[in-house]
Every structure is written in C-alpha cells, then in structure tokens.
Amino acid sequence: MTNANHQQITRSPLNACRSALIRGFLSSAPHAVLDEKGYVSEGSQNLIEGVRLADFEADLRQGDGNEMLKKFRAAHSSSALAVNTFAPFKANPAALRLPGGRDFATLCFERKCPHGVVGRRSPNLDVLADGANGLVAVESKCLEHLTPHQAQFAPAYDAQIRDERRESAWFLEMKRLVQGPRSYRWLDAAQLVKHAFGLAFTFGKRPATLLYLFWEPSNPEAYSAFSEHRAEVTRFAKSIAGGEPRFVAISYPELWKLWEAHPEPEWLPAHIGRLRARYGLAV
Predict the structure, then answer these.
(1) Between vectors from CA 255 to CA 123 and to CA 46, what angle results, nearest 5°?
(2) Are 272 and 48 a contacting pair, CB within 8 Å?
(3) Could you give the CA distance from residue 211 to residue 263 in angstroms, rounded to a whole number?
C-alpha cells in the first residue's frame, strides 16, 4: 500500500468512525473480544449494561435480516445501537418520548411492514412504538450514511401501487428518484420511501411518523460528510413535506439530549450516561 493510499484510508470518515466505535466498545467492555472486522462472537456481548436479551431477541430473530446472527454482532451495528438505546423501554413503553409521539402501549424491534408490492421484500423497521395516538417507526443508522447510495426501484412499485399512496408526496419523490437516482449521495432516500409505502399500507390512515435516527460523533465538524448528509436530509424532508407518514429526522445525540430535558423514569439518566460512554465518541 502506498503512503498516499494509506493516508486516504486514514482520512476516510467511514474508517475513522468505525475505529472510534471499536474504541468505545472496548472501553465500555474491556474484557470483550472483537475479531479483525470488529465483531463479537455472540450478539449478547454487544449490549450495554441494563439491556436484556429477553427484551428483543425474539423480535430480531423473526426479522428478514436475522440480525442476531449477522450484523448485530458488529461494534458499529445500527441494529445494536437501536436496541441499546430503546430496549430498556420495552417493559414500559409509556415512558418513551420520541419526536412524533409519546404514551406508547407497545414497543418492538425489526417490525415487518408489508407494502403490498408482490415480489418485493417487505420493509423491516428497526423500532416501532405504537399507541392510541399513533405510531412512530424508527429507521436507525450508524455508519450506513457514510457510504454513497444510488436510488433503485423495481418497476413493480410503479405498476402495483394504485391506491391513494400514488398521489402522495412519497410517490412523487419516488418518481423523482427514478429520474435522478444519484440525487442524494449519503442519504438512502429510496429505502425511506419504501418504508413509507410499508407504513401507509400496513397501518392505513392511522397517524404515523417515520423517524430517521442517525449516529454522529461528538465532533461532526471533523468530516464534511456529516454536514453534507444533514443538508440532504433537510432537502429530502422538504420534498416529502405534507406526506403521510410524517417524516422526522434527528441524530442519536440529539435524542439523548431531548431525553435529558425530561429525565424520567428514574433509571433514564444513568442509561443516557452509558449510551454516551459507548457511542458519544470523537473521531
């Protein structure tokens, strides 16, 4: 490897963030062992204190991605980040506050939401909080938004979606993405549109929010990719404004700060502290 190539890899935000998350993992679990790719041997080893396997294992094993056997074992897993953040609320979902909702009755992980498009895989939402006043579905990102994306839609989406979703802002955004698949570099806009189709098909006219929840380091100014990603999120939100489900985007650190403003239940401040120790890292 040449010095130039080595410097390029070193400067990569993806590699820098992956290294930081590995450091955070080893700092919070000094006796754990990671392989050369940053994976533990068992998913249970990737949990912070206070998170119980019984609260989420069944949910993850029924999802299409079979997360427990694969990606969940990575120190940089977005699924593990979501579980570590939300699993303590499983026993008391009414205590959970999210942009777009509160007073939830149920909380589950890897919720499959069919979109009615035959031959295409149903979306899996990382977290789904449901209550009498509506639902919030979370799409969790850890490092995925540091890899370039290109929007792709099978013709079946246009051919088979013939209900009122076809007149929605989400469908119009799909048409724009088909015409300009590289409209967004860091944001996986096509995935969000497919999630929205699934929520609208599965839950009908119930009030719903699609919450895009993404990780950032404590010093996002270190790499321009983070500000570019935020700019794309803002542009995307404007494109689908007024659509159902409602779209909201926030970073994990911003969510933890929101929780600190309402530090209940009594275990929540300690939980936020453990999350910050594991994931509130500089690069």
Answers:
(1) 65
(2) no
(3) 21
